[in-house]
Amino acid sequence: MKRLIITVFALALTSVLFAQNSKTKLFGMPLKRTGVSLGIEWDRVQNFSAGSFERMAGLPSLSDDLGLDADQADIYSGYCENPHLRLQAAWLTANPKVELHTSLLVVANRYDGLTFYGESLSRYDNYLTMNSWGNEIALDVALVRRFEAGPFALHVGVGGNTGYNFLNTIDITGTLQAESSISSLKSSGIGRLNSSDYGDFHIYDVEVGDGISQRVYGQLGWSVTIAKRVEIGMEGRWGYGYRWHFDGSPISTNLRSLGGIARWVLK
Question: What secondary structure does DSSP assign to 153-214, as a single string?
Fold first, then answer.
């Protein structure tokens, strides 16, 4: 997976560097600036629960197989971490203050997790953690209006992206208190049960199929241009979308994104 991401990044970066030395146009729109954005995205699953993991994996009986009453178990804490990298290109439209931004978006090791704690989890010494891991490569397109005052700029826009999700897994961890519970998980035929060297502590791994993601968002950012060539700043995005793993069913998501930008301004 790391090799694939590095290869895609290298090819895209080569294209960006080539574009800076050529009269590159996209549907007649000249290339104005190229650069990168690096930050964090919270692509949060709406109404996140044990049922969300069931829909991701297409395993409607997963909670039953784990002896988990998803309606009664208490959610103790939730997690969502999505470090992202964008390779960006900005194209001038007929209105010189409006740009079309195209980006290659890479999300590596997307992480969504829930920790449950309650009496309904007695088989797990009253706690259970469910985590999903995945990766995504997406094409992002946005229409952005720039408001400039000297070297400073405010940019407002709307956009969307479509991505491909791959190398996805779900892991469930807990302290099983009965050997019969372990046998029950093994006999379910779903995933793989791994036992560690810490007594009854176990990790239950479930492979999740590839899928797609789509989102629409509004964005707001600011930047300052140094020596008329180097632009640095920050951008934020706020929107909604869904993820659909082909083995499961779609789940709705909320997008919250923040990242630093560095761009090279062409003449």
Answer: EEEEEEEEEEEEEEEEEEEEEEE---HHHHHHHHHT-SSEEEE-SSTTEEEEEEEE--EEEE
Q: How far is CA 185 from CA 171, 174, 188, 196, 206, in A?
A: 13, 12, 5, 15, 12
Cα angle value 11/213/25 (rounded, 5°): 40
pLDDT tens string 24-69: 888 899 999 999 999 988 888 988 888 888 888 887 777 776 666 6
Nearest to residue 66, comparing CAs of 123, 127, 126?
A: 123
Q: What would the pLDDT profile of 69-80 be if each residue is shown by its tens digit?
A: 655 557 778 888
Q: What is the average pLDDT value for the chain, to the nearest integer?
A: 81
Torsion of the alpha carbons at 173, 178, 179 and 182, rounded to the nearest 10 = -30
Which residue do the tokens 């009269």 mark? 23
